[in-house]
Specification:
- About 2% of the residues have low confidence.
- By secondary structure, the chain is of the alpha/beta class.
- Helix 2 packs parallel to helix 3 and helix 3 runs parallel beside helix 4.
- The chain contains seven helices and 16 strands.
- The two termini are 32 Å apart.
- 25% of the residues lie in helices and 24% in strands.
- Bound molecules: fe (ii) ion (FE2).
- Fe (ii) ion (FE2) binds next to loops.
Length: 350
C-alpha cells in the first residue's frame, strides 16, 4: 500500500522549501500561556445531551472530480445526524487553490448554521498560503468557533470549547495544532512530524487548572482533538486487549518526538480521550490505561490514499465520520462511526 512515502516527502519538502518563513508567526513557542479564557461555550440540549460530529482528512480540492464524494459525505452526514457541533481534525484541503478548497468543504456546515471548529492538519499549509492565512479564512466562516492564534502559543488552531448545562461547565473540548513537520538539529538530524510544544502544554494546563478550580477541585471530563497522533499510540496498540473496536488498516504515523502531552493529561486528570485523524486507514478505538485513543473515520475521497471498507480494507472505499454523544453531568460518553449512507458501526460507551 503506497500510503505515506508521498505524504512524508511532501511534509519534508514543505519544511525545507517553504516551512520556516511561511510559518514563522505560528511557530513561536514562548513559555507564557495566554489567560485561560475558553474560545467558546455551547449549551447542552434541553434533554441534557450534546452531539458532536468529527470530520477528518477531507483532503478537498475544489473543482476536482476526485473530491466529489467528500463533499457529498459531509452534506449527508450533517443532514443525517444534525449535530450540535462539528470538529474537523485536519487535512481539510489537499491542493490549489488552497483557501477556496478549505472554504468549499466547510461551507455546508456554515450553511446549516452548525457551530464548528478545526484542528489543522499537516497538509493544510502546504499548498501556497501561510497557515495563519488558511486559518484566518476559515475563522471568517459563519459559525466557526476558533479564535485568533494565541500570543506565544505554538501553532494556530489551539482552542478550548466549554459545554455547559445549568450555568456550569460539564465537559471541555481541547483542540491543539499539531502543525506539520520538523527537523531537529543535533549530532543526528531528527526528521519527524511536528510535536505539541512546551507553550501548548502550558496553555492546556492553565485552562485545565481553571476549569478544575471552578468545579470545586474536581477535573471536568474532557477530550482532546488534534491531527497527528502521539507516539504513545504505538505502545497502546501493542498492549493486549487494547483494541475495543474499528479497523486497524495501517501502522500509525505519529511524531517521533514525545511531547509530554500525555503526561500532562495524566497529571491534570481531565482528558479521557485523545481523538485524531492522519492515518486514513484506521478508525479504531484503543484503551490505554485510563485514556482512550480514538481515530476519526476518513471523510475524504480519492485525492489521497484510503482503503477503508465496511469491515476492513476494501476497494469499496467508504468514507464517513465519527460521532460523540455526551450527557450533562455524566462522565461517560458514547461514540460511533457513521458511514456514508447512514450505516452505524462501533457503538461504544466509554
Ligand atoms: Fe490526511
Amino acid at each position: 500500500m503506497k500510503r505515506r512515502s508521498f505524504l512524508k516527502n511532501a511534509a519534508w519538502a514543505s519544511v525545507l522549501l517553504t516551512g520556516a518563513p511561511a510559518f514563522a508567526a505560528c511557530r513561536k513557542d514562548a513559555a507564557q500561556a495566554s489567560p485561560a479564557v475558553p474560545s467558546a461555550s455551547l449549551p447542552f440540549r434541553a434533554d441534557g445531551t450534546f452531539k458532536l460530529l468529527q470530520l477528518t482528512d477531507t483532503h478537498y480540492i475544489t473543482g476536482d472530480s476526485r473530491s466529489e464524494r467528500a463533499l457529498r459525505c459531509v452534506e449527508e452526514a450533517l443532514d443525517g445526524e444534525k449535530p450540535d457541533l462539528v470538529i474537523h481534525t485536519g487535512d481539510i484541503l489537499f491542493g490549489k487553490p488552497d483557501i477556496p478548497s478549505a472554504i468549499e468543504i466547510l461551507q455546508p456546515i456554515a450553511d446549516r448554521g452548525i457551530p464548528f471548529a478545526v484542528a489543522l492538519g499537516n497538509h493544510d499549509s502546504q499548498f501556497g498560503s501561510a497557515r495563519e492565512d488558511v486559518f484566518s479564512a476559515i475563522r471568517d466562516l459563519p459559525g466557526c468557533l476558533n479564535t485568533a492564534p494565541k500570543d506565544g502559543v505554538y501553532g494556530c488552531s489551539n482552542d478550548v470549547i466549554a459545554l455547559t448545562a445549568g450555568g456550569r461547565t460539564c465537559r471541555v473540548l481541547y483542540l491543539f495544532d499539531s502543525m506539520d513537520a520538523v527537523i531537529l538539529k543535533g549530532e543526528e538530524e531528527i526528521h519527524s512530524y511536528d510535536y505539541i510544544r512546551y507553550s501548548q502544554l502550558g496553555w492546556y494546563r492553565a485552562h485545565s487548572e481553571q476549569f478544575t478550580q471552578e468545579n470545586g477541585g474536581t477535573p471536568v471530563p474532557s477530550l482532546a482533538f488534534f491531527h497527528i497522533p502521539l507516539r504513545e499510540i504505538e505502545e497502546a496498540l501493542a498492549a493486549p486487549d487494547s483494541l475495543l473496536g474499528g479497523i486497524n488498516g495501517e501502522p500509525p504515523c505519529p511524531s517521533r518526538i514525545n511531547s509530554g502531552l500525555l503526561a500532562q493529561f495524566r497529571e491534570m486528570g481531565d482528558v479521557q480521550a485523545i481523538v485524531t485523524g492522519h492515518d486514513h486507514d484506521c478508525d479504531y478505538v484503543l484503551r490505554y490505561g485510563n485514556l482512550y485513543y480514538i481515530y476519526g473515520r476518513f471523510s475524504g475521497c480519492d485525492t489521497v490514499y484510503n482503503h477503508l471498507g465496511r469491515s476492513g480494507l476494501s476497494d469499496e472505499k467508504v468514507s464517513g465520520c465519527r460521532l460523540f454523544e455526551f450527557k450533562a453531568g455524566a462522565p461517560n460518553f458514547r461514540t460511533w462511526v457513521r458511514l456514508y449512507g447512514g450505516e452505524v458501526q462501533q457503538m461504544l460507551t466509554l
